[in-house]
Amino acid sequence: MNLVRYRNAIVVAVVATYLLLNYGMQVVKIPPGRYGVPVGELCLVFALVFCRHRFVLPLFASTGVFWAFGAWWFLGAMHLIRAVPEHGFWAFRDASQLIESGFLYLGFCLSVSEITRLKRWVPWFLAVAVLYGLTYPVREPLQALSPLIQTSSGREAFLFFSYISSSTLLVLASFMLIMYAAQVGLRERFLLIVLAALLLSFTVYAYQQRTIYLQIASLVLLSAALNARFRRLLPVIFGSFVVVLAVFPYLGINLQSRLGIDAGLGFIGNHLLAIAGIGSEGLEGAAGGVGQRLGWWYSIYLKVSASWFTGLFGLGYGQPLIDFIGHGVVVREPHNSIVTAFGRTGILGLLAWFVAHAYLAVTWITTYRYAVRNAHATSITFLKWVLFYSALIWVFSLGEDAFEKPYNAIPYYFLWGCVLKTRIAQKYTALSSPEPALKNNQTSLAATL
Fold first, then answer.
1. Is 300 in contact with 342 (CB distance < 8 Å)?
2. With contact defined as beta carbons under 8 Å apart, do 314 and 303 qualify?
3. Is the dihedral of CA 168, 174, 176, 182 positive or negative?
4. Helix (H, G, I), strand (E, B) or coil at 111
5. Which of 92, 168, 203, 366 has minimal CB crowding within 10 Å?
6. What pLDDT, on the 0 to 100 scale, is given for residue 431?
7. Are 280 and 271 in contact (CB under 8 A)?
């Protein structure tokens, strides 16, 4: 294995570990302790040192990504440079998404053959993630076996069995099963739909997170938009899900749920009401959190709008956006990544961030249409996986600081880098021609693909 492949293998391993172990991997630093450098950032620096920028960078720039992300990167970098002398480590902490968006480039650095292997490994990774997520009910004895890692705030965290993003991967795996069910025979289709319904029911009842309902709704809409057969099967899928939800509590499974509330359709109804801030027995805290978040967001709006400068450019990095302490730790973010982007970088930064992601969305549509036209089944499945995962992260970001968490941001940007590289490969394939005028350009391009 040459140095480039060795580097790429390390990058993929780091991304997969962040995705699976979530918070446990986020707090791993070198050297260990409060002020070590996170593994993700070390991996980013290591990989950038050994990248063949002379070949990759022009190709990366040709995608238009610099135009799309340039304003956001520039504004964020100026804020970071300004904040480091005063706030030091915490400036880097608050700029984590800006830094970790560099994984967009690392995903692009993978060769087409490496991305093809990655596509084949996705189902196996999801299978491992599902098995990992299913251990949630027995998390306490498992956590007792896990090494402890010191966080930047001085607390200790479990390296394994944190499960913070496990529900997202379980929902993702469920919908990938449903999408696959639309392509197989009647008997296999029924089994896959029931299996997906069981997995979703387990996720709803065990993890008891309000965001899960919104995530499921978002993937239903995306699946219906992408697949006509899914639209025809939607009544069957919905009916199966409701039936399994009703039956699941009587299967005798001790879920040891997050909130400690017994599973049942009544719980789901009350939990949905909690999204609107309507409390019920056992869900008073969940309902109260809605008003608390709204208060945080309004306070940030007042701070940012205090002057024209902060209104345009935000409050910058290094200082907590809210005045709240939970479990003895300062809570720095307002549990909404969009509000965080507005608070840190103002109207201009928020607009630039949206434009950058809109560019990624347009790239996905173009890449997906090409894959469908040319019947590239593996690429179609991979692109759906990226889209579904991204939608889950975006929904999660509405009530949590999703993009400020490395175990979300690192896989997110890395996967989109792979999409950009896939699009470049498609362009190269479409331009392939025996005409002499194209041969020299194709040879240099092929070397980087």
1. yes
2. no
3. negative
4. coil
5. 366
6. 58
7. no
The CA distance from 300 to 303, in Å, is 5
Write out pLDDT tens, residues 95-139: 999 999 999 999 999 988 999 999 999 999 999 999 999 999 999
Secondary structure letter of residue 232 according to DSSP: H
254: its two tokens: 């001790």
In whole angstroms, what is the distance from residue 386 CA to residue 184 CA?
Answer: 22
3-state secondary structure of 149: strand
- Token pair recorded at residue 122: 């996705």
* CA distances in angstroms from 249 to 87, 202, 246, listed in the order given: 50, 9, 7
As a whole number of angstroms, the distance between CA 302 and CA 172 comes to 37
Distance CA 428, CA 449 (A): 9
Tens digits of residue pLDDT in 178-214: 888 877 777 788 889 889 999 999 999 999 888 999 9
Q: Distance (Å, rounded) from C-alpha 171 to C-alpha 207?
A: 11
- CA 184, 379, 62 angle in degrees (round to 5)? 165
Phi, psi for 232 (deg, rounded to 5): -70, -30
Angle between helices 436-448 and 53-62 (to 10 degrees): 110
Q: How close are the terminal C-alpha atoms of the chain, in Å?
A: 17
- Residue 97 one-letter amino acid: Q
Residue 306: helix, strand or coil by DSSP?
Answer: coil
Give strand ranges (E) for 113-241.
148-150, 156-158
Which of these, 323, 343, 333, lies nearest to 408 by C-alpha position?
333
In terms of Cβ atoms closer than 10 Å to its own Cβ (0-12, 13-18, 19+), residue 428 is middle
Cα of 26 vs its chain's centroid, Å = 14
Q: How many angstroms separate the Cα of 97 from the Cα of each of 3, 79, 245, 273, 403?
A: 27, 13, 37, 32, 6
Q: How many residues comprise the chain?
A: 449
Instruction: Read off φ and ψ for residue 155, nearest 5 degrees.
Output: -85, 175
Which residue, among 250, 200, 243, has the nearest Cα to 220 in the 3D structure?
A: 200
What is the rounded distance in angstroms from the CA atom of residue 258 to the CA atom of residue 90?
Answer: 30
Q: Tell me the sheet residues that pair with 38.
A: 29
CA dihedral 442, 443, 448, 449 (to 10 degrees): 60
Contact 404, 96 (CB under 8 A): yes
